[in-house]
Q: What sequence folds into this?
């Protein structure tokens, strides 16, 4: 049975930033909001250089234990369009194994690194995940869109109008999926969100009675997964 909520927003967070646990999760819990955190690990040398700003396995487990969905964003964050089927499978399987070792539930959702849809990877993804998120900037229509090509709208920087223009598109049949990175993001400053601005976004969603969910919740409600 499909359930349509008139004003539903899905919050997603990419790249396993430490600020997701320190700043984002407490605010989400305060308002009772759901969210999906898409985890990647990056290359070993880069991760070692920036590890103080990145979540470790135990911290990712903390997010899962708080009730948030943990999704797969590949291991190295490569452009999947440039990889062979075997390479894509390795990227996905390695991250899944990392999460399994951390005792995190198997991911239900996937996010394409960098955002663009990778047609070459979609058939393999469909054998593992009920849904995969792009950054194609429009609302998601679960009853019509290819679940391997779920559109989402990136929100970053200090232009709050990006946020307001996005969420006003939510309505019957339209789920607005938002993409955030770190709040803040010291290692990816271009996509960083100021914490005070982010807190204002959540307050706005709460005050205006938006239903705020994870990708897993919407996939399940629309019969795309029983997990």
A:
């Amino acid at each position: 049975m499909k359930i349509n909520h008139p004003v539903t927003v899905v919050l997603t967070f990419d790249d396993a930033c430490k600020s997701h646990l320190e700043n984002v999760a407490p605010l989400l819990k305060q308002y009772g909001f759901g969210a999906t955190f898409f985890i990647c690990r990056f290359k070993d040398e880069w991760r070692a250089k920036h590890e103080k700003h990145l979540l470790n396995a135990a911290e990712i487990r903390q997010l899962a234990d708080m009730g948030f969905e943990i999704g797969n964003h590949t291991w190295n964050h490569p452009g999947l369009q440039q990889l062979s089927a075997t390479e894509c499978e390795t990227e996905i399987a390695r991250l899944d194994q990392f999460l399994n070792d951390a005792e995190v539930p198997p991911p239900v959702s996937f996010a394409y690194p960098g955002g663009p849809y990778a047609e070459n990877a979609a058939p393999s993804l469909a054998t593992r995940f009920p849904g995969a998120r792009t950054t194609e900037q429009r609302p998601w229509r679960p009853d019509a869109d290819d679940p391997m090509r779920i559109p989402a709208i990136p929100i970053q920087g200090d232009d709050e109008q990006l946020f307001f223009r996005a969420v006003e598109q939510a309505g019957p049949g339209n789920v607005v999926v938002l993409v955030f990175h770190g709040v803040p993001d010291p290692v990816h400053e271009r996509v960083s969100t100021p914490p005070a601005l982010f807190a204002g976004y959540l307050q706005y969603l709460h005050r205006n009675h938006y239903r705020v969910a994870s990708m897993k919740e919407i996939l399940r409600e629309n019969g795309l997964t029983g997990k």
Observations:
- Strands lie at 8-14, 36-39, 69-72, 109-111, 131-133, 153-154, 175-180, 211-213.
